Each structure stands twice: as C-alpha cells, then as structure tokens.
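Worked example

This section walks through a single chain of length 514. The input is the sequence exactly as stored; nothing has been trimmed or padded.
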Amino acid sequence: MSEQLALLPGYLTAHLQLTLLALLSSAAVSLPLGVAVTRVRWLEQPALGVAGVIQTIPSLALLAVMVPLLAALGLQSIGFLPAFIGLTLYGVLPMLRNTVTGIAGVDPAIREAARAVGMTPAQQLRRVELPLAMPVIVAGIRTATVWTVGIATLSTPVGATSLGNYIFSGLQTRNSTAVLVGCVAAAALAMLLDGLVRALETGVRTRRRRRVAVVVAAMAALYLYTGLTLAAPLLSRSGRPVTIGAKTFTEQYILAHLLGQWVERETGRPTTQRQSLGSMVAFNALAAGDIDVYVDYSGTLWANEMGRQTVGMDRATVLAEVRTFLADAHGIRVAATLGFENAYAVAMRARDADAMRLTRLSDLTPLAPGLSMGGDYEFFSRPEWVAIRDTYGLAFGEQRTMDPALMYQAVAQGAVDLISAFTTDGRISAFDLRVLEDDRAAIPPYDALILVSARLARDWPDVLVALARLDGAIDVDTMRRMNLDVDERGADPITVAADFLSGLSRARPAGETR
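Given that input, the structure is written out below as tokens.
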C-alpha cells in the first residue's frame, strides 16, 4: 500500500490537470454556443447533432483517434494534448443540451414581462433567463464533471498520466491494491468537484455570499495549483527527461522500469514513464519523438509495421531486415537486442492437451470448431493470428477478446479452451499450461529489442551507448522468472527491475559490454 500511496500525488495532480482544464474548455464552448442556439434556432439541430455524435463514440476510441490526427498535424501525438482534446469534446454535450433546455424552458410570460418593462435582449438574458435556467445548466455541468473525472482514467493508453495508471497497471500485474487506490481516488475527486459545483449553484440561487466566496476561493485554488504544476516543468532548469514507453502487459512494465533505472544510473539523466500504450501508439510516438525509448519485438515490427509475410521466416533474416527498415523509414535505432524472444503462442491446459492428444497446432485443426479461444485486445486483428488461422485452417467455435491479465485465469478455470499466450509468461508454468508447437512456422521470431528515437540518438549519444551495454543481458528464463514474480508473487515491477540490475552489476563490471 505504501508504494501505491507514494505515487498518488503525481497521479492525482495529473488527473486534476486534465479534468479541470477540459471542463473549463468544455464550458467555454458549450455555454456561449447554448445561448446562441436559443437565439438562432436553426443552429440547434446541427450543434446538438454534432455533440451527440461525439458522445456516441466510445470514450477510449475517441481518445485513441486523437493520436493519429495530431500526428498528421505535426503536433504532440501522445500525452496531455490528445487526452485534453478528447475530454473537452466529451464534456460538451451535457453542458450544451442543458443550457439550451434551461433557457428554452423559461416561461414565455416571464419573457414578455421582461420586454414590457423595457429590458434589452442582453438584459433579458442576463437578468431573467440565465438565473431561471441556472439549476438546469448547473445539472449539466455536474454531469460533465463526473463524466470527465471518470473518462480521464482512460487517458493512460494515449500516454497521459492519470489515476488510470493505477487501474491499467494494476489489472495487468494483478495488483488489486493499485486498482483500489485508483478507483477510490477517482471517486473522491469526482465527489469533491461535483460538491463544489453544487455548492456554488446553491449559494448563488439563495444569495449566500459567504458560501459563494468560499467555493470560488476553493475552485480558484485548484485552478491555481493546476496552472502552477503545469508550468513547473516548463520553468525548470533541469533538462528534459528521457521518456520511456511501455505497452499494456507485465513484461513491458518491468522492462520500462529497468531501462529507466539503468539510464539514470549510467548517465545521470532523469527519466519518466509513459505506460500502458497500445502497440501502434507506442511505435508512432517513438517515430514522432514523443517518447525516446521502449522495448518492442521483431515479429511485431515485421508483421505490423513492415506488413511482411510471417510464415517460415528465420530469426536472423527478420532481425536484420527490421533494423534496416527502422533506420531507413523512421530513423529509429536498435540500441540492443536484450537476448530473449517473447513470441505469441497458443496454449491450453496440459490435462486437456493430454486428453485430446494435442501437441502441435496442426493437431488442433479438426477439433477447433468445438473449442473456444481467448485473445488479448489486439490478437485477433493482428497479422500473426491471420497467419496462424490460414496456415492451420483453424475455425474455432468461439473467439473471445479479453484483458491480457485475465486470459490465463480464464483458461485455467475453463472459461475458454485455449489462449494466445506469451512465451516468456511465467503463468504458463504456474497454471500448468501447454504451448502447442507451431510446426508449420506460422509465427515469426520475436526478439526483444530496445528501440530509440532519432532524436535521442542525435541529442543524447551517451544514453544510446548506455543502452547498448544491455545487449544480451536477459535470457528467456530470467525474463520468465521476473514476470512470474510480478504476476503470481505480487512483487512490484520497480522492485523486480531494481533486483535484476543489482545482480547484473555484480555479474558485469561497470562499462563492460557483451
């Protein structure tokens, strides 16, 4: 618990920054537009229609779509900006709709009376319509506030730090404490902000000046804190940190912390993490220079980025051509080959494999229609799955996409018959699973590679040199053991990474390369 609470100030501050600024931007768009709609009636349908369409897009998809759009515009494609824009758009509809509804709901007789006493349209709006519509408008703001706090937890996959870091990493590493802290903190923040908005509206409506003053002071303090914490990195004289990315599974969290600790120790440069990124998000961010370093796998790059045929490829050819492609197409350097492969595999309970006499994927073909298979979020849309399916003629009775952290538990408990496993995952042994042999070589090699951006290679050659010293540093048994420590024994990825580096230092003197 103490380790998780130590992370709370940073995560909560980042979450507050996203939420408050997105709400302010949503209000700046929605409230004037809502007033305009009540004056220009033909605006109502298009304005509410566009806002409604945005609202129908799943929140995570809306945040994710910001990444390629911003990259195409040459803007920062991950981190604060895409999350901020997505959250701002999501907050528009409830504020806009309630503003229109509130003003439109004012009794026509009251409007007529205001005109009869000589009020101008502006005075009528300011002194009559807005005060009467205020409870409805504030209800929309409160709804947007709670939505924004909740949806901000989904900004982690696009590289924005938030309380979602607790939830995403906790789910992947089976750390229920982290998930609990993230959920409780998000709920508390939503209740606090909702209470402040409600108290402000009540104070204004009942003309309690002291309450209004207290609430305004509290909100001003929050916005001041948000502004200062956002500006602090820009005003800091220390250099920009080395940004290390990680995808959404245990091994990536361990390796990201390992790289961060190694860079800090070997070069003295500060580092920061961007965790729980999707495969394409991580690669595009590296190519754009939004992150500096992350670990990817030769087979993933071969299939996803290069679009090459996966069947029958040998390890040396894939590795050599991946290096050339990355350098020529994106200026990305392979700093080191860590020394192990983490390939996709198809795994099932050993006792079921024995009962069905299954040892190879080709044995599975006639039985597939009666079996169910689980895969992670990406697997069934990846070229590797297409290659496996077509090479072996597999047509499962059911395919289920699920969180990677839950796949192993699902197959162990019989919820599915097979899963798309990772060969370095310690849970294969822990849950007594059997990996079926890829006897027709449909799955490409998956060497773990440390990739660095063109900017890092240009600006920080000392970091590139330090990372190169990790070449061949981790074998498959070591990586599997580290994954098992986190997934089954509840160890923190930071601690596991530190323990590995301590052992590496004892085995390999400083500066020695392999």
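What to look for: The mean pLDDT is 87.
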